[in-house]
Specification:
This protein has 176 residues and is α+β, with helices and mostly antiparallel strands. The protein has 5 helices and 10 strands, in the order ββαββαβααβββαββ. It starts with 5 loop residues before the first strand and ends in a 5-residue tail after the last strand.
Length: 176
Protein backbone atom coordinates (compact mmCIF):
# COMPACT_ATOMS: atom_id res chain seq x y z
CA UNK A 1 0.00 0.00 0.00
CA UNK A 2 1.42 3.40 -1.03
CA UNK A 3 0.98 6.07 1.59
CA UNK A 4 -0.27 9.41 0.31
CA UNK A 5 1.81 12.49 0.88
CA UNK A 6 0.92 14.74 3.77
CA UNK A 7 0.49 18.40 2.84
CA UNK A 8 2.43 20.98 4.85
CA UNK A 9 3.44 24.64 4.72
CA UNK A 10 6.59 26.45 5.83
CA UNK A 11 6.15 29.10 8.51
CA UNK A 12 9.50 30.77 9.32
CA UNK A 13 11.73 27.98 10.70
CA UNK A 14 8.94 25.42 11.25
CA UNK A 15 6.71 23.32 9.04
CA UNK A 16 3.03 22.82 9.85
CA UNK A 17 1.13 19.84 8.46
CA UNK A 18 -2.46 19.68 7.35
CA UNK A 19 -5.16 18.53 9.77
CA UNK A 20 -5.30 14.83 8.83
CA UNK A 21 -5.16 11.37 10.33
CA UNK A 22 -2.00 10.65 8.34
CA UNK A 23 -0.25 13.68 9.88
CA UNK A 24 -1.30 12.69 13.40
CA UNK A 25 -0.12 9.14 12.69
CA UNK A 26 3.37 10.51 11.97
CA UNK A 27 3.46 11.80 15.52
CA UNK A 28 1.74 8.88 17.25
CA UNK A 29 3.57 6.02 15.53
CA UNK A 30 6.91 7.57 14.56
CA UNK A 31 7.25 10.54 16.95
CA UNK A 32 7.79 13.20 14.29
CA UNK A 33 7.07 16.76 15.41
CA UNK A 34 4.69 17.86 18.12
CA UNK A 35 0.92 18.34 18.09
CA UNK A 36 -0.37 21.90 17.68
CA UNK A 37 -4.18 21.82 17.80
CA UNK A 38 -5.10 19.22 15.15
CA UNK A 39 -1.90 19.63 13.14
CA UNK A 40 1.71 18.55 13.62
CA UNK A 41 4.52 21.09 13.84
CA UNK A 42 7.77 19.76 12.42
CA UNK A 43 11.28 21.13 12.73
CA UNK A 44 13.15 21.87 9.50
CA UNK A 45 15.22 18.70 9.99
CA UNK A 46 12.16 16.49 10.49
CA UNK A 47 10.46 18.07 7.47
CA UNK A 48 13.55 17.60 5.28
CA UNK A 49 13.74 13.93 6.26
CA UNK A 50 10.06 13.32 5.48
CA UNK A 51 10.34 15.30 2.24
CA UNK A 52 13.33 13.23 1.13
CA UNK A 53 11.41 10.04 2.00
CA UNK A 54 8.45 11.19 -0.13
CA UNK A 55 6.07 11.36 2.85
CA UNK A 56 5.55 15.14 2.78
CA UNK A 57 4.61 17.73 0.19
CA UNK A 58 5.79 21.09 1.51
CA UNK A 59 4.36 24.27 0.00
CA UNK A 60 5.85 27.74 0.04
CA UNK A 61 3.86 30.99 0.37
CA UNK A 62 2.97 30.87 -3.34
CA UNK A 63 1.58 27.30 -3.19
CA UNK A 64 4.61 25.86 -4.98
CA UNK A 65 5.97 22.52 -3.81
CA UNK A 66 9.50 22.38 -2.49
CA UNK A 67 11.90 19.98 -4.12
CA UNK A 68 14.41 18.54 -1.64
CA UNK A 69 17.38 20.67 -2.82
CA UNK A 70 15.35 23.89 -2.70
CA UNK A 71 14.13 23.03 0.81
CA UNK A 72 17.75 22.42 1.90
CA UNK A 73 18.68 25.94 0.75
CA UNK A 74 15.84 27.37 2.84
CA UNK A 75 16.85 25.32 5.88
CA UNK A 76 20.52 26.33 5.57
CA UNK A 77 19.50 30.00 5.67
CA UNK A 78 17.81 29.39 9.04
CA UNK A 79 20.47 27.03 10.44
CA UNK A 80 24.07 27.45 9.23
CA UNK A 81 25.11 23.93 10.39
CA UNK A 82 21.99 22.34 8.89
CA UNK A 83 23.63 19.90 6.48
CA UNK A 84 25.85 18.29 9.14
CA UNK A 85 22.95 18.08 11.60
CA UNK A 86 20.66 16.69 8.89
CA UNK A 87 23.11 13.95 7.91
CA UNK A 88 23.26 12.77 11.54
CA UNK A 89 19.50 13.03 12.03
CA UNK A 90 18.78 11.15 8.80
CA UNK A 91 21.34 8.42 9.51
CA UNK A 92 20.02 7.81 13.04
CA UNK A 93 16.38 7.79 11.89
CA UNK A 94 17.22 5.37 9.07
CA UNK A 95 18.80 3.09 11.69
CA UNK A 96 15.56 3.04 13.69
CA UNK A 97 16.29 5.54 16.46
CA UNK A 98 13.93 8.31 17.58
CA UNK A 99 15.76 11.63 17.46
CA UNK A 100 14.42 14.77 19.14
CA UNK A 101 15.86 18.19 19.88
CA UNK A 102 17.95 18.60 23.02
CA UNK A 103 18.31 22.36 23.22
CA UNK A 104 17.22 22.46 26.86
CA UNK A 105 20.06 20.00 27.60
CA UNK A 106 22.60 22.11 25.73
CA UNK A 107 22.98 19.54 22.94
CA UNK A 108 21.75 19.20 19.37
CA UNK A 109 19.79 15.98 19.78
CA UNK A 110 18.62 13.46 22.33
CA UNK A 111 18.54 9.96 20.91
CA UNK A 112 16.25 7.20 22.14
CA UNK A 113 17.24 3.57 21.83
CA UNK A 114 15.44 1.53 19.16
CA UNK A 115 11.85 0.78 20.10
CA UNK A 116 11.71 3.49 22.79
CA UNK A 117 9.56 6.60 22.43
CA UNK A 118 9.81 9.81 24.46
CA UNK A 119 7.67 9.40 27.56
CA UNK A 120 8.21 5.63 27.69
CA UNK A 121 11.78 5.99 28.91
CA UNK A 122 14.60 8.54 28.88
CA UNK A 123 16.88 9.18 25.94
CA UNK A 124 20.06 7.10 26.01
CA UNK A 125 22.34 9.66 24.35
CA UNK A 126 22.86 13.37 23.80
CA UNK A 127 24.31 13.85 20.33
CA UNK A 128 26.61 16.53 18.99
CA UNK A 129 27.03 16.51 15.18
CA UNK A 130 30.35 17.90 13.91
CA UNK A 131 31.95 18.00 10.49
CA UNK A 132 35.11 15.99 9.93
CA UNK A 133 37.26 19.08 9.42
CA UNK A 134 36.14 20.93 12.54
CA UNK A 135 38.12 21.09 15.76
CA UNK A 136 37.01 20.62 19.33
CA UNK A 137 39.06 21.91 22.23
CA UNK A 138 39.44 19.87 25.42
CA UNK A 139 37.38 22.54 27.16
CA UNK A 140 34.54 22.13 24.63
CA UNK A 141 34.81 18.35 24.84
CA UNK A 142 34.70 18.49 28.64
CA UNK A 143 31.62 20.76 28.55
CA UNK A 144 29.80 18.34 26.23
CA UNK A 145 30.76 15.43 28.46
CA UNK A 146 29.45 17.29 31.52
CA UNK A 147 26.12 17.93 29.76
CA UNK A 148 25.76 14.21 29.06
CA UNK A 149 26.80 13.19 32.57
CA UNK A 150 24.54 15.72 34.32
CA UNK A 151 21.51 14.56 32.28
CA UNK A 152 22.32 10.88 32.93
CA UNK A 153 22.91 10.20 29.25
CA UNK A 154 25.83 9.02 27.19
CA UNK A 155 27.74 11.45 24.99
CA UNK A 156 27.56 10.72 21.27
CA UNK A 157 29.95 12.67 19.04
CA UNK A 158 28.73 12.30 15.44
CA UNK A 159 31.39 13.05 12.83
CA UNK A 160 30.17 13.74 9.29
CA UNK A 161 32.78 13.34 6.52
CA UNK A 162 32.90 15.09 3.15
CA UNK A 163 30.78 12.35 1.54
CA UNK A 164 28.06 12.75 4.18
CA UNK A 165 28.86 9.48 5.96
CA UNK A 166 28.58 9.53 9.75
CA UNK A 167 30.93 7.93 12.29
CA UNK A 168 29.78 7.76 15.91
CA UNK A 169 31.91 7.97 19.03
CA UNK A 170 30.23 7.15 22.32
CA UNK A 171 31.94 8.57 25.38
CA UNK A 172 31.20 7.26 28.87
CA UNK A 173 32.54 8.02 32.32
CA UNK A 174 34.82 5.31 33.63
CA UNK A 175 35.98 4.92 37.21
CA UNK A 176 39.35 3.15 37.45
Amino acid sequence: MVKSKIMAIVINDKVLTEDSDAARELYIKSVFGKPIENKIQLSLIEAAFLLEKGRLDILDGKNRSYEFERFLKLAKRHEPNFWVRYRVYSDLRNRGYVVKTALKFGADFRVYDRGIKPGEDHAKWVAFPVSEGSTLTWHEFSAKNRVAHSTKKRLLICVVDDEGDVTYYEIRWKKP
